[in-house]
Design brief:
By secondary structure, this protein is of the alpha+beta class. 25% of the residues lie in helices and 28% in strands. Bound molecules: zinc ion.
Length: 477
């Protein structure tokens, strides 16, 4: 350590250590101005004196535990370094002074230097901090600070911080040693940060450039992005999922996305299927049964996390678009999402028993299911800051869609009901009952058609062999 730059560089290097301290002798070598500044910034703070010191009397350079000897003349205790060869010697108490690196202060200064917003917090004391978020390279990034990532217990830090895994676009900052790659792009403050004009300054341009080129969190294909106003919220976004495309609407904008635009391989892509689950549920996934293995539950969370990353890559809206439904293992979307009317009912019922089918006076069919509507409820609390705008609430409502039989594929282009269409009308006119054989093909075909349309599982009809009577599981009016 000879120059001004070196003390800061040494701070980054030692911040990775379990005991990040400087001795009085080391500080003597440092540039006094820089030392003063690092103390002023709170990065360095005097801590307990050293209990070990090097012997300077014999030239061997061995370290010994410091003994405090009472000086009768002065009435004070004085430190003494024993030596087997020379007997030892007194040392100045100043030589035992030490300064510790205060990582909390480094975290605060880094947050400030990057102009981050959101509620910062300590995730693992002394090791992991959430610094806040901001838009970098076209996306909102959650910035984490991680010290000692390469220490022996470093791998545990990930498991203890679900917040990193759940972040749509996490960025890791480390003092000097980046963790093994893969989880999230990581950057060294040793490379990005300098002391400038009495403050810590972090090279945001460099970070943005590197993140623009980073592909680890994004699919290999180029995504089409949707230009959103900076104050747009997820609740304003509406996605309509069709057979091969998604139509996105936000305020007065509308844009259609194909599989490729979304970085998806096709209808078999797991992220597409997960998106369809949200769409069928009108913005929520079914509860994850407790019988599901931990491994599958983790896989599901991972897929939700991937979908979250993809969505925030396409729609640069601040905050998390998918939030957990407490106590169910499922998730709900803050944006509105439904299936395209042409390919199915917009909301997936949990059970056929929840559905109501009615025949309207003009011969059309009305289908209703109870649902829970999610709506934005801003300013719930004064304590919460940035998340307030995304707070959501739910209210029960009834979702009703009315269909011409042609829209349901149950009539020919002239509007004449098909055999299956006639079966449905008979069911509705007979209070949900119909006397037919158990292997009636029209009923079986109609069952499959309604299953696909509603996105429900299981047949909508039950058969009582003793009476050769079919009945609907859904309510009829
Ligand atoms: Zn000695």
């Amino acid at each position: 350590m000879r120059t001004m730059d070196d003390l800061l560089r040494e701070v980054w290097s030692r911040a990775e250590w379990e005991e990040a301290v400087f001795s009085a002798e080391e500080i003597e070598w440092a540039d006094p101005e820089q030392f003063k500044l690092l103390c002023h910034l709170g990065f360095l703070k005097e801590t307990e004196r050293a209990t070990w010191a090097q012997c300077e009397t014999c030239g061997d350079g061995h370290a010994e535990e410091v003994v405090w000897i009472h000086n009768k003349a002065t009435g004070n205790s004085e430190p003494f370094v024993p030596c087997p060869a020379t007997g030892g010697a007194r040392v100045s108490p100043d030589r035992l002074r030490r300064w510790a690196i205060i990582l909390d202060a480094v975290a605060k200064a880094t947050r400030h230097a990057l102009g981050l917003t959101g509620n910062d917090c300590v995730l693992v004391p002394g090791r992991v901090w959430f610094l806040g978020r901001r838009q970098i390279a076209g996306r909102y990034r959650d910035i984490f600070f991680l010290a000692g990532a390469i220490r022996e217990d470093g791998y545990q830090l990930w498991d203890r911080c679900r917040q990193i895994e759940d972040a749509p676009a996490p960025v890791i900052l480390v003092p000097d040693q980046a963790p093994s790659p893969g989880r999230a792009p990581a950057f060294r403050l040793a490379e990005l940060a300098i002391l400038d004009d009495g403050r810590l300054s972090v090279d945001l341009e460099y970070l943005a450039d590197a993140l623009r080129q980073d592909r680890s969190a994004a699919p290999a294909k180029t995504l089409t992005s949707f230009q959103v106003p900076p104050d747009a919220t997820w609740a304003e976004l509406r996605l309509v999922v069709g057979e091969h495309t998604i139509v996105a609407r936000l305020r007065n904008q509308e844009q259609e996305f194909g599989f490729e635009d979304l970085g998806l391989s096709g209808p078999e892509d797991r992220l597409w299927q997960l998106l369809c689950v949200f769409a069928h549920g009108g913005g929520r996934t079914p509860a994850v049964p407790s019988s599901v293995s931990e491994k599958n539950a983790v896989n599901f969370r991972k897929q939700v996390s991937n979908l979250r990353q993809r969505l925030t890559a396409v729609f640069a809206i601040e905050g998390d678009p998918l939030v957990p439904l407490r106590g169910t293992g499922g998730y709900r979307s803050l944006f509105q999402i439904n299936m395209d009317r042409r390919s199915g009912f917009p909301v997936q019922p949990e059970r056929w028993e929840d559905c109501q089918f009615a025949i309207l006076p003009d011969g059309r069919i009305a289908i209703s299911i109870p649902t829970r509507e999610i709506f934005a409820a801003p300013n719930i609390s004064r304590e919460t800051s940035s998340r307030t705008a995304q707070a959501v609430a739910e209210r029960p409502s009834l979702r009703t869609e009315e269909y011409d039989l042609r829209a349901l594929d149950l009539a020919d282009p002239m509007g004449r009901p098909t055999a299956e269409g006639r079966v449905l009308l008979e069911f509705l006119r007979n209070g949900g009952k119909l006397t037919r054989r158990g292997d009636d093909m029209d009923i079986l075909r109609l069952g499959r058609r309604l299953e696909a349309w509603m996105g429900a599982t299981g047949s909508p009809f039950q058969f009582a062999p003793s009476r050769t009577l079919w009945s609907t599981r859904f309510e009829t009016r």
